[in-house]
Amino acid sequence: MKPNNFALPTGLPSSTGKPLESSSTENALESMAKEIPLYPKELSWLSFNARVLQEVEDESVPIIERVRFLGIFSNNLDEFYRVRVADVRRLATFAKGSKKKEHFSDLLGHINEKVLRLQARFGNAYAKVLKDLRRNHIHVINERQLTDSQRAYVEEYFHREVLPELEPFFIDDRDTMPLLNEASIYFGIYLELEDGSLRFAGLELPTDILPRFVAIPHREQRHEKVYIVLDNVIRACLVEVFRFVLPIEKAAAYTFKISRDAELELGEHVTQNLVDRLAKSLKKRKQAEPVRLVYDSTMPEALLQLIKKKLKMGRYDSYTPGGRYHNSKDFMSFPADSKQHTYRKIKPLPTLPDSANIFDWLREADRLCYYPYHDFRVITKLLASAAIDPKVREIRINLYRVAQNSRVVAALVNAVRNQKQVTAVVELQARFDEQANIHWSNELSDAGVEVIYGVPGLKVHCKLISILREEGGRNRYYSHFGTGNFNESTARFYCDFSLLSSDDKMGEDAYRVFDFIKQPHLQPGYHHIWMSPHTNRPNILACIDKEIAAATAGEPAEIFIKCNNLVDSEVIDHLYRAGAAGVRVRIIVRSMCALLCQTKGLSDNIKVISLVDKYLEHARIYAFHNGGDVQVYLSSADLMTRNLDHRVEVSFPLQSAVHRKTVLDIMELQWQDNQKARLLDADQTNGRIANHKSKRNVRSQDAIYRYLKKLDV
């Protein structure tokens, strides 16, 4: 069944457009949007992950990068089950009425069908990658391929490093299965004893302690690299694990792993107690019900059924037979042996002159930066300078995800030491970064920073810095507005914009957002920005409606959007109407797209493409023709209901004509991409865009770097 023909009960849309991750199941069911033709967002997400898999299959991609894309695909799929499939499973379980239950049950069936097809492609791609690694003298071998000298090395490594970390447990009808960690991989072990009886056991692989890929001596050619995965080190010595416990005749190990529901349930009061409650909720997450079991398809049926029984998995849970190896996300850290096997790293373009005072530099003009093409150190330099500048009185910042060794946090701590008033909004519910954010919030609090844990019922997702500096007897604002996090690590491969400004009106807007976060009963007015949950949605819809009115009047009208996800039903409905009115609508979407593309009579004049390449496309841009006076807004908000209605998000205008042109030029380069762009059709089959009319190949991420090199942004 094709997704766009997905059978829908009367009154039930194919995608609700509502944020299931932060609301209860009953509320999600009660708040479903009116019926609008939509592509199921969960299936659209799987189409996105298929685009990631295409990079593995693309032999023009450097071989180590293809290995890492295997890891990205696997990691993405794990999160998909923990979040999105868990939501659908919850809805299927608690939906009221047979039609609704049938709808969500059918959706789970379509998800599983598509995942199985992707897993089959993954297996073929994995086998091809191993073959191509060998062609490049990089060998990943199993325990049956070891030479005598290599086996001796592996056995010595096993007894010295691995065996002390192993804690096997027996699996039988009498004992309870230990609580399994979803971040881990496990062996289901089949033991045949000398008396002919059978025993089953389990074993967690200690990948959090030991490397997944173990370098071992080469065989013949000195320039070759040879690795064996930790799984096969243990398989090679499996009998040794039970040597002094059971008389074993034969032993075999089969990998399996689980994914648990990642939903966190928290109360509404945002106080210091939230830290304690969140820590407890994280413990509950570790004990949440499994939603998926992935297992080696060659596992003996008796062992598989016993594991299923012990995990207490039900009818709405997913079972995915696979190959010999799981937790392929570890491939993201596959060792790079040579620069020729990876993408050439670019040298980030300088922004701030080395000898310049950053505040003088910002007073000259607003500055637009685009990472990773520009050097992210401009942000750490801004905060480090503010921390020691005697004229700076106050620093306010949003922290959503920060780097492990964060210079941003270090600068804030130093600012307190220098008697600055520092306020940090730390979003404790940044999914899968909750534990890290608890750590940072405690460190900041201990240093004397005023830490705010957000707004009741709203995640704080905006990317703001507000610096108050005394100049000439008055306070002047220096502000940062961005589309990405203050994270030095991800800024090396996430494509995001920063606008640094000394404009007082923009500065007042940024400062007032923090006032709202501190006192959410206030709804301050803003000069230029749009802010969720108050003005982002109505302003975006008003801009679309203005283009519709222009097209209806026979005037030029165009909408150009770039986002990570487009799933909000009301926005999509307005875009359908814009296309029908004759507005030219172009959309670049990285991940989920619930808009039915290339569907006659519905999405005429709308074209959607997606880009997957060496950098992750993360920026959000909303551009409107506006009667020739083009409006360009950058934003922290995607076109999802959760971002527009249930988060604190900021969209900010580019007031500089130079900056507007820069961003629009970048978008045009992406639109012209005929190397890494995919056209989203009605079935989201990810067809490559091959522009035969063009005399040149355009790979936008390379073209953007060359373009920015020529500019003084």
User: So what's the overall shape?
Assistant: globular
Mean pLDDT: 86
The major sheet is characterized as:
10 strands, mixed
CATH class term of the largest domain: Alpha Beta
**Percent helix:** 25-40%
Outline the fold blueprint.
Blueprint: H1 25-30, H2 41-57, H3 63-94, H4 98-135, E1 138-141, H5 148-162, E2 169-171, E3 186-193, E4 198-204, E5 213-216, E6 225-229, H6 230-236, H7 238-241, E7 248-260, H8 273-286, E8 290-296, H9 301-311, E9 318-322, H10 358-364, E10 367-371, H11 377-388, E11 392-399, H12 407-417, E12 421-426, H13 434-447, E13 450-452, E14 459-460, E15 464-471, E16 474-482, E17 494-501, H14 504-518, E18 530-532, H15 536-552, E19 558-563, H16 569-581, E20 584-589, E21 606-611, E22 616-617, E23 620-624, E24 631-635, H17 641-645, E25 647-653, H18 657-671, E26 677-679, E27 687-688, H19 700-709
Parallel strand pairs: 1-6, 8-9, 11-12, 12-13, 14-25, 17-22, 19-20, 20-21
Antiparallel strand pairs: 2-4, 3-4, 3-7, 5-6, 7-8, 10-17, 11-15, 15-16, 16-17, 18-25, 19-23, 21-26, 23-24, 24-25, 26-27
Helix pairs in contact: 2-3, 2-4, 3-4, 11-12, 15-16, 18-19
